[in-house]
Amino acid sequence: MKIGIVCPYSFDVPGGVQFHVRDLAEELIRRGHDVEVLAPAEKSVSEFVTAVPGSYSVPYNGSVAKLSLHPSALRATRKWLENGQFDVVHIHEPLAPSISLYALAIATSPVVATFHTSMDSSRALRIAAPMLAPFLEKIRGRIAVSNEARRTLIEHQGGDAVIIPNGVYTERYGSAQPIKNWAQTSERPVISFLGRLDEPRKGLGILVGAMRHILREHPRTRFLIAGRGDAKEYADQLGDCGDAVEFLGGISDEEKESLFCGSTIYVAPQTGGESFGIVLVEAMAAGACVVASDIEAFRLVLDNAQAGYLFPAGDSEALAETIIDALNNPDQTASLARSGRQRAALFDWAVVSEQILRVYQTVIDTSCEPILDDTETLIDTARRLVERIRQEDSRE
Fold it and tell me: How far is the C-alpha of 244 from the C-alpha of 246, rounded, in Å?
């Protein structure tokens, strides 16, 4: 099968959708399919990725997305689709104001779309959805990565989707070896965190607020904080906890695997805006016990606390109590870690890619004539959508 995959977000910047697209492409290639990816990027990132220049930053859903609607991106998208002659085109986040919109307008092959975003409200999307309705009609197969992503699709854009979760190469995490300087010991438990430091919804401030309470009960605990962004704001808040905390900065995939497998507990204190929780699955696969906020996406991954601990989102005191309880009850924590590792297997790429391939085959077998290319209308719509998102999302 010849498969074209479109990612709206820049491959120059790490992110969940980018990792999902990369890993899906690698898994499909491993299975013998001919796969090409189109994504914004300023440099060559992989032999199967065609880089589209001209990315720009847009505040969106509590984060900042790097997208591309440069005039050259339209030309590149059209050329990529014409040369590719794909059996199926898989577009991620088809309503993102980026090359996903271009690909959706131009594609004549059967289209599958995956929806990743979770949000409670968005005036921009509510206004944009009617304008984009003709283009959404081109989608023959819809996938949502979680219940929350499916809910967002239904509420903001209409229609429905089959739920297929994000994938993880669980074997890589299960066979990883800890880095000596980061690894837990019987005397010093390790609590790890991974996320952008400059995104408040990732919840690092919640963890920082819990540290003093945890160290009062378990003074030899170490906190390893990984992720891009300026750590100074948080370092200034640590006070006498500072000696127990190490900021690792951005880490590679291999370092992430080692960090998780050497951790006693992985903490996911996000306050919202998460559609799935891929990092939880990665930590579970590596054998760490997960402590996560009780947002809907994380409850799903942890099977309602059957595969990890949950605490009320945004509550530093409750987080501290949960971690102290986990450290006070090592047998229970080890049991939850084992359950987590077993549950992570459900999200392995071997399972997930097979489900996606069934969607591909279904839309190929049932495809009908696509609607006409209306790129000029889309360009105008996309520009107005970008401006609307910049105005409206900053107010929400």
Answer: 7
Report the half-sphere exposure of 240 (CA within 13 A, side-chain side): 6
Residue identified by tokens 């606390």 is: 305
What is the layout of strands, in order, in the sheet containing 34-40? 49-52, 34-40, 2-6, 88-92, 111-115, 139-144, 162-163
- Cα–Cα distance for residue pair 255/13, rounded to 1 Å: 17
Label the pairing between strands 245-249 and 162-163.
unpaired
Q: Which of 328, 299, 303, 297 is nearest to 311 (CA)?
A: 299
Please provide residue 221's backbone torsions phi and psi, each rounded to the nearest 5 degrees: -65, 140
DSSP 41-94: -SS---TTEEEE--EEEEEETTEEEEEE--HHHHHHHHHHHHHH--SEEEEEST
- Whole-model pTM? 0.85
Question: Distance between CA 396 and CA 394 in Å, rounded?
Answer: 6
Give the whole-angstrom CA distance, residue 92 versus residue 143: 9
Q: What integer pLDDT is reported at residue 234 of this predicted model?
A: 87
Radius of gyration for the chain, computed over Cα atoms and rounded to the nearest angstrom: 21
At position 170, the amino acid (one-letter code) is T
Whether 144 contacts 325, CB under 8 Å? no
For the residues of 288-322, what is the DSSP string, one character each?
PEEEEE--HHHHHHTTTTTSSEEE-TT-HHHHHHH
Is the distance from CB of 331 to CB of 221 less than 8 angstroms?
no
Q: What is the mean pLDDT of each run of 10 residues along the chain (396 residues)?
A: 95 87 96 96 84 71 65 89 96 88 90 86 61 79 91 80 95 95 95 93 95 96 94 84 92 96 98 88 98 95 97 97 98 98 96 97 82 61 62 54
Give the orientation angle of helix 349-365 with respect to helix 16-30, to 10 degrees.
80
